[in-house]
Amino acid sequence: MLPADLPDPGAHTGPGAHDGRATRWQSHREERRRELIKSARKAVHALGSDASMEDIAAASGTSKSVFYRYFGDKAGLQQAVGEVVLSQMQRRIQEAAEGAQTPREGLLAMVSAYLQMAETSPHVYTFVTRHAYGDPEAGTGANAGAGALGHFFAAISDMIARPMRGYLGAGPGRETVIGYWPNAAIGLVRNAGEQWLASPASPTKPDQAGMARQITDWLCLGIAPELRATEPAP
């Protein structure tokens, strides 16, 4: 259970006391916010991506008014949880890119990191990537309708683009092509990955490693191998 919400630091009683209290108060608020994000993430993982603020608060051992105080509305909470997920994903993708020896190996590692994150907690993935339109708890502020994390996939696209620029190098026209490619690539990764995630288990459904290899092949080779395989022999 989370601790009770923190009280106001109150008035200072001497020179320098206000600054000290303000610093401690800010530190307490930041720690409390981290606890609430961690607790909300666990609640969504267990309850599902449609969990209400009241459900999340109850699972966290506090009241929904506390979540509103720290995050403004549900979209604000989605944003905060999404930033934590994105930060963790950034580290994993960066490690994958740094350990790769070839562009294709790097892409495979990055796609694998993405699919692993989504498969490990599909409820949290949906919570931080879907739009909040029509949700009465989303509010009407800057976060409303922005999706769980408006820049989530833009940030992932940039993560993919940076190592690819290093692999492919500079040259006439290359920067333009590289500039278009990441957004197209992440669209393929996201749509294929989400369709795979939503598909029921079956003997024909690839496992995570197999799906990562298939998506990487599409990114590197397109569907040319499949087309050649279906062409009649001369």
TrEMBL record:
The keyword DNA-binding applies. Residues 1-30 are annotated as: Disordered. Residues 52-71 bind DNA. Coiled coil: none annotated. Residues 30-89 form the HTH tetR-type domain. Residues 18-30 have a biased composition (Basic and acidic residues). Keywords: DNA-binding. One of its GO terms (molecular function) is DNA-binding transcription factor activity. It holds the Pfam family TetR_N. This is TetR/AcrR family transcriptional regulator. It comes from Arthrobacter oryzae. The lineage of its organism: Bacteria, Bacillati, Actinomycetota, Actinomycetes, Micrococcales.
